[in-house]
Write a structure and sequence with these properties.
Elements (H helix, E strand, L loop, with lengths): L3 H18 L3 E5 L5 H7 L8 E6 L3 H8 L3 H7 L4 H15 L3 E7 L14 E10 L2 E10 L4 H21 L1
Length: 167
């Protein structure tokens, strides 16, 4: 079972950090199915810092809502550095937020492959720096069942947003 109290505590710390910095966040989610947005909006006062939450579970949603290129999905797959980077930039552009986080992964129990086993999750953060946008992507491999992979994904994504806002 997921540790929802720890996620709530992390989300509260993130919202506090966002409020202090005067920044807004947006989320673009696939494997977490809206859990990132839920975690943030579970915190009172989050409406001051939460701009958008897009659940782009299907490839078509990634393309139509976030502007992920079809070629990216065809060439790299939806669970890839390029896909999450395009998701994060799309969420940033769509929302006007200061920072966006995107996640796409294989939560299981099925859907894994030798190249992308269950527990593989790609993360991207897109941060406005004046007129420019700085992006950062990386992959994690989490062990556990579907709920545990998703819990760890939410935790890592929220921590990543907080770290980038605090810079």
């Amino acid at each position: 079972m997921a540790d929802h109290e720890s996620i709530l505590a992390l989300a509260e710390a993130l919202v506090s950090t966002l409020v202090s910095s005067g920044k807004m966040v947006a989320t673009a989610e696939s494997c977490t199915g809206g859990w990132l947005a839920k975690a943030i909006t579970d915190v009172a006062g989050s409406s001051d810092v939460f701009a958008y939450g897009i659940v782009s579970y299907s490839n078509g949603a990634k393309e139509s809502l976030l502007g992920v290129k079809r070629a990216t999905i065809d060439d790299d797959g939806a669970v890839s550095a390029n896909a999450v980077e395009e998701m994060a930039i799309g969420a940033l552009d769509l929302s006007g937020a200061d920072i966006a986080v995107a996640v796409s992964g294989v939560a299981g129990p099925g859907g894994g492959s030798q190249e992308k086993p269950v527990g593989t999750v790609w993360f991207a953060w897109a941060v406005r720096e004046g007129a420019a946008v700085k992006t950062d992507t990386h992959c994690r491999h989490f062990a556990g069942d579907r709920d545990r992979v998703r819990e760890l994904t939410v935790t890592h994504a929220l921590q990543g947003v907080r770290e980038r806002v605090m810079k």
